[in-house]
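Worked problem 6 (solution included).
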Amino acid sequence: MKAMVLGAPGRRLELEARADPTPSAGEIVVRVEACAVCRTDLHVVDGELPGPRLPLVPGHEIVGIVTVVGAGVDSIQPGQRVGIPWLGHTCGCCTYCRSGDENLCDQPLFTGYTRDGGFATHVAADARFAFPLEGFADPIAAAPLLCAGLIGWRCLCKAGTGRRVGLYGFGAAAHILAQVCRWQGREVYAFTSPGDVAAQAHARSLGVGWAGGSDEAPPDLLDAAIIFAPVGALVPRALAAVRKGGRVVCGGIHMSDIPAFPYRILWEERQVLSVANLTRSDAVEFLAIAPRAGVRTTTTVYPLERANEALADLRGGRIQGAAVLVPSV
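Solution. The predicted structure is:
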């Protein structure tokens, strides 16, 4: 197999040849067809998330074909197309796992962070955290659903049922979630980096009713706002944009510090929530909803060997939708 490997935080990924993975009990081996590039991958590569398992193969929005199943695996068969997300293993016995909050597990493993991920031609995965994708014919289009879609869906569930939803940071997650919101009959307000007219035009092309800079106030008070950009200063701006009793949901794993803000914009029962990881139930729900909602992902494709270029383009804000790595065969 081939893999793009992170040797130390802040360094470029290096292409390596490795022995093909062998599944342990309860695992599968997948031949990677596509792996989308997430902003969390940037945080891992840039050293903003502590304690990655090095050397590391990043990548956690994986679509591929099962080639080998390990002992004890009977729910997945060789030849099946599956998706592998960020949450790659949970202990199953801590307080959180036992209460249905496995996304908060005390001893988790994360794909592309504390276990090797999908910036490779092959990957081993816990079979319990691999999801059949029989209804998804295009692996490139499906790859962004495995994190951008899943975490966006969990954020939307936390945001509540309000009609007016603001999305701060119109990248991979927001461009998927905007389509789901429109399918649900909601009004969507897209907030981009100030002056990013291309991202605003992309938002409007997906049916978003209003698009503007994150430094602008929306024309109407929002019922909820979801922040995907890793910018802490957006929290008070979003609070000022939501109505009384409104919610602001922070969807990123990493965010810069939130600055001090006046209590009056939190008062009147406004709430600030964070979303951590995802559960398998989130994946099952969203992967059933995405086809019904007619979600279409916007992707820019890179060969696996150009993973560093994909990361640089994402870091520089040059990607509309999602970047996707495709191994050459």
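Discussion: Residues 189 and 228 are 13 Å apart (CA to CA).
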